[in-house]
Specification:
It is built from 3 helices and 9 strands. By secondary structure, it is mainly beta.
Length: 157
């Protein structure tokens, strides 16, 4: 395909030969198999500027300092629907060696000022959080629905 605008590409799809059929697909979400994705490099260097969500989940999150203090691991990525808001990393701030239901989570905006380094090969992300960001934690509450069978009214008679 051809890159037309900031977030618009012109592509030709197999078996879509009529203009009307192509116009009906405008604005649709296009999914691509992972093996067909090529990394997008920045113009200034050989660094990747875009990542697959699956590349980020599970990476260690460390402070961008001399000791690279361990903070936690990426639990998920919250993708922005709005171009004015950035994607966000949901990070588990692990208390012990294994994750637990009591572990706190924090949201880290995926912007270069706060996340200067994403190193897929080393499986780590270095962050420079502004003061107070790591204090904005929460605990994910899982809701469990238990389904069971109640005795029928006939059984009680």
């Amino acid at each position: 395909g051809k890159h037309r605008l900031d977030d618009e590409y012109l592509v030709q799809l197999q078996d879509v030969t009529e203009r009307e059929a192509a116009l009906n697909l405008r604005g649709s979400t296009l999914y691509v198999r992972e093996e067909h994705v090529t990394p997008q490099l920045t113009a200034e260097s050989d660094e990747v500027e875009e990542y697959l969500v699956s590349d980020l989940v599970g990476l260690e999150v460390r402070m961008n300092n001399e000791n690279q203090n361990f903070l936690g691991k990426v639990n998920s990525v919250v993708l922005s629907e709005n171009e004015l808001i950035h994607d966000t990393l949901e990070v588990i701030l692990q208390e012990g060696p294994l994750p637990s239901f009591r572990d706190e989570l924090v949201l880290i905006p995926l912007v270069p000022l706060i996340v200067p380094t994403v190193d897929i090969a080393e499986k780590k992300i270095l962050i420079d959080p502004p003061p107070g960001l790591l204090d904005l934690t929460y605990v994910k509450k899982e809701r469990v629905r238990i389904k069971g069978f109640l005795p029928s009214a006939e059984d009680e008679l």
